[in-house]
């Protein structure tokens, strides 16, 4: 627990990044870690970039992760992984959702969604885990649970599966969605 771990969660507004970060933070605090979290909403409600920085360890003094300092980046949308890759350590890991959310300019036909995004990420980072979280969440009955599937993948990448994640889910999710989210986090950890 002496080493500080830096986790950057990135995506687009409406993907549930803040909820995933809160569950992560709750679980880590309950497990005895000192945790600091910082979130940037940007134009979240309009599909803009959203980031959350979570740092944990024995003693953490600041919630901010600088460029080249993230141990893990979890990208809830493919383009966001490329946008934030400069924050990854040279030996860092990326957990990426194979999912596209077209920007307003793509929807308007002014631009095309870039091709080969995952291949580009793999050329820049050796340790890449690709998850089709939307497919997995759909199998569970609700595509909106893809954020928690991604959280499960992040938990696996960090090697912190032994934390009581069911308790963290119960503390942060409405009761009617608890079972779905517990299944989603377990699914992500198995991928």
TrEMBL record:
Organism, scientific name: Alkalithermobacter thermoalcaliphilus JW-YL-7 = DSM 7308
Identification of the protein by name: Indolepyruvate ferredoxin oxidoreductase
GO MF, one annotated term: indolepyruvate ferredoxin oxidoreductase activity
Pfam families with a match to the protein in the record: POR (PF01558)
Residues covered by the Pyruvate/ketoisovalerate oxidoreductase catalytic domain: 13-190
Enzyme class, spelled out: oxidoreductase
Gene3D superfamilies noted in UniProt: Pyruvate-ferredoxin oxidoreductase, PFOR, domain III
InterPro entries associated with the record: IorB_Oxidoreductase, Pyrv/ketoisovalerate_OxRed_cat, Pyrv_flavodox_OxRed_cen
Entry keywords, A to Z: Oxidoreductase, Pyruvate
E.C. designation(s): 1.2.7.8
């Amino acid at each position: 627990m002496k080493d500080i771990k830096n986790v950057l969660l990135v995506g687009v507004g409406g993907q549930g990044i803040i909820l995933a970060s809160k569950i992560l933070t709750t679980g880590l605090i309950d497990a005895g870690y000192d945790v600091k979290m910082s979130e940037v909403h940007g134009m979240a409600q309009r599909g803009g970039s959203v980031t959350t920085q979570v740092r944990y360890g024995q003693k953490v003094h600041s919630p901010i992760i600088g460029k080249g300092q993230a141990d893990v980046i979890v990208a809830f949308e493919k383009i966001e992984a490329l946008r934030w890759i400069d924050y990854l350590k040279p030996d860092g890991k990326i957990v990426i959702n194979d999912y596209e959310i077209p920007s307003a300019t793509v929807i308007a036909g002014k631009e095309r969604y870039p091709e080969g995004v995952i291949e580009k990420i793999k050329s820049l980072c050796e340790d890449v885990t690709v998850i089709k979280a939307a497919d997995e969440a759909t199998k569970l009955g609700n595509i909106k649970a893809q954020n928690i599937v991604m959280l499960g993948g992040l938990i696996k990448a960090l090697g912190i599966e032994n934390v009581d994640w069911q308790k963290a889910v119960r503390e942060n999710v409405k009761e009617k969605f608890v079972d779905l989210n517990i299944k989603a986090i377990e699914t992500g950890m198995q991928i």
